[in-house]
Amino acid sequence: MPIRIAFIGAGRMASAIVRGLLEKEHYAPEEIACTCGDDPTGPALAEATGIQFLKDITPALYETEAVVLACKPQQFAAISPELAEAARGKLILSILAGTPLVRLSEKFAHARNIVRTMPNTPGQIGAGVTAFAPLRELSDKDNGIVENTLSSLGNFHEVDEVDLDAVTALSGSGPAYVFEFAAALREAGVSCGLDEGLADALAIDTLLGAAMLLAESEETPEALRNAVTSPGGTTAAALKVFQEGDFRGLVERALAAAKARSLELAAE
Ligand SMILES: NC(=O)C1=CN([C@@H]2O[C@H](COP(=O)(O)OP(=O)(O)OC[C@H]3O[C@@H](n4cnc5c(N)ncnc54)[C@H](OP(=O)(O)O)[C@@H]3O)[C@@H](O)[C@H]2O)C=CC1
Ligand SMILES: O=C(O)[C@@H]1CCC=N1
């Protein structure tokens, strides 16, 4: 069976995409190959999913229809000209944070088309969100490959490339902010006298329930917040502390820092 899609990098995100593609039966395991760096992530992914691990994936690229770039942005420069040449006429999908289409197209000068994407880790369970920007308008065939790949991870949105650094700051990195908030809720619950296990369970269910309500409701986050906040009650007391600590300003500065770092990664 020919290899139809090849992964350059076999870490957390490649693993999420491979598992999604297999679960949705877009490819058979034998039609997917991966390679990696010096650590054994590639063999581990192959062992766990049945896909092929190829130490040298270059020869296999000639037979693929698509190549997914899933190494770290700082490892992009190490991708060899031979590998890029073998990807001549292929669709390239990049998940590299920061690396712009212009840089991708310098290396993969003879690609059929290139799509810069920004997924996130909830894609591991099909609950992710991805934004993508193609170099050129996608043909029907390539649109199908992109849709199959991104829908395996969850929802997806086409955007202008200029928005992708901000997308990275919001939804690419965003799960980490939520996990940090979950840990902060657990710690604060313990400080208030709760058992750690109970505080953890309450924090998780609160985040999950609030996110589901937000997704299902037609109300804004502000309206839903107000519905929790009784005048003179407990929530108002807590929100006053958030406001005094400039919670929104803090989030704004955090996203600005992530966006700035994404722009810096463009050249690394
Ligand atoms: N983690 C996240 O939340 C998100 C990450 N991204 C982007 O996804 C990409 C991958 O991230 P993530 O999966 O977290 O990273 P990982 O560190 O888990 O995976 C990186 C992979 O790249 C491999 N690799 C290293 N050097 C090379 C090389 N020269 N050739 C081929 N493969 C190589 C590594 O191999 P080995 O370790 O075996 O040496 C590893 O399999 C990054 O570009 C990141 O910006 C995008 C959205 C979200
Ligand atoms: O932290 C990072 O650089 C990557 C990109 C988005 C999430 N993780």
Let me know the number of strands. 8
Bound molecule kinds, no repeats: NADPH dihydro-nicotinamide-adenine-dinucleotide phosphate, (2S)-3,4-dihydro-2H-pyrrole-2-carboxylic acid
CATH superfamily of the largest domain: NAD(P)-binding Rossmann-like Domain
Please name the CATH architecture of the largest domain.
Answer: 3-Layer(aba) Sandwich
Gross morphology = elongated
Unreliable runs, pLDDT <50, ≥5 residues? none
Task: Assess the beta-strand content as a share of residues.
Answer: 5-15%
Distance between the termini: 37 Å
What CATH first level of the largest domain would be assigned? Answer: Alpha Beta
Radius of gyration: 21 Å
The secondary-structure class comes to alpha/beta
Helix share bin: 40-55%
* Count of separate structural domains: 2
Total DSSP helices: 12
Order of helices and strands: EHEHEHEHEHEEHEHHHHHH
Read across the widest sheet, the strand sequence of neighbours is: 3-2-1-4-5-6-7-8
Largest sheet: 8 strands, mixed
Query: In CATH terms, what is the fold-level topology of the largest domain?
Result: Rossmann fold
Mean pLDDT: 97
Protein traits:
ProC C-terminal domain-like fold, Rossmann fold, binds (2S)-3,4-dihydro-2H-pyrrole-2-carboxylic acid, 268 residues, single chain, elongated, 2 domains, alpha/beta, 13% strand, binds NADPH dihydro-nicotinamide-adenine-dinucleotide phosphate
